[in-house]
Amino acid sequence: MYRVRLKALLTLAALVAAPFSWAESALKIKNDAPQTYTVVKGDTLWDISELYLDNPWLWPRLWQANSYINNPHLIYPGDKLNLIWRNGQPLLSLKTMVKLSPRVRLLDKQAVPVVSESLVLPYLESDRLLTLLSLQQVDRVLGSSNGKQFLTNEDVLYISGQQSKTQWGIYREVETFTREEQRVVALKQVAWGELSSADADMSSLRITQQVQEILVDDIALPAVESDKGELTTTFYPQPSPAESVAHILGTLEGSQYVGQNQVVVIDRGEQDNLTQGSMFELYKHGAAVSAKQSASKVVEKAVKDKLTMPNQRIGSLMVIRPYQHFSLALVTESLQPIGKDTLVQAPVVPDSAHQELSTQ
User: Fold this and answer.
1) Which of 87, 110, 184, 319 sits a CA distance of 20 to 30 A from 134?
2) Where is average pLDDT lowest: 46-60, 168-182, 242-256?
3) What is the DSSP annotation of 11-49?
């Protein structure tokens, strides 16, 4: 039995009950896809989708909601998925393990996530991209009573201002990212702390965890609840707006290349209609036609005309935290190293399909 390794749990958002009829783009099921699959604890929606589809973000086309479930957007450990065919289209039908009444189900367990919660939560619990204006207003590390410049969890840490928040993060500036006139600063968390005391000029923190030494002038930010506002751990994959493109600007760690399950910064955000779960496909630039001096006239003409080979698909990208002009995005698939020269494009789907997916 196939078991998915990722452990955390999120939810799948609303999906329609009626089957899709997209003649332009027939949904293709993998040859070795199971006819039935029982969801187990530790599964993720993304990996279950890969059992059936080459493009897991097409899951909404495969899923069939069930009216007897209290919340038809969720699947749980113990649920049985059945692959059926209706009007020539494949569907996954759900048989729930626990059925209490026509519209009630037992909710003593968490729903299957899209991707591992551990890959997403760190980027929801506190700000990682700050505008230059916000950066001017943050509190800073002042030091410790013994005057050391490099602080450890054995030191009492002092930060600026009279604080009231209990939980704090200590951050260091990593890199500045630019999009036309917009600029943001990426932050890397180096420590966690709890408020110990506060007076009119400064407050003290007790360091509870750290991954690097703390420096004077590091940034101090209060912890942000992961369920605040529109940011949530309950989102689902969907194509980014049709024909949209983005550029990879870099990473929070400063690495030049990344692979699967790593996070990058892209130059598109909420103003470009991106939301949590917006999907892009990743491509490598096609090579230009080149030839030796003794090449045929056909090849020589191709070189002269600067013809290039088709771009090669090498992975996929999911937005996990959109900001106004930028986003943090998770590499969900990587066949080659992903870098700034990688092409980032919206998945190519028929217009009708795009509209139906975007309304889910």
Assistant:
1) 319
2) 46-60
3) ------SSPP--TTS-----TT--SEEE--TT--HHHHH
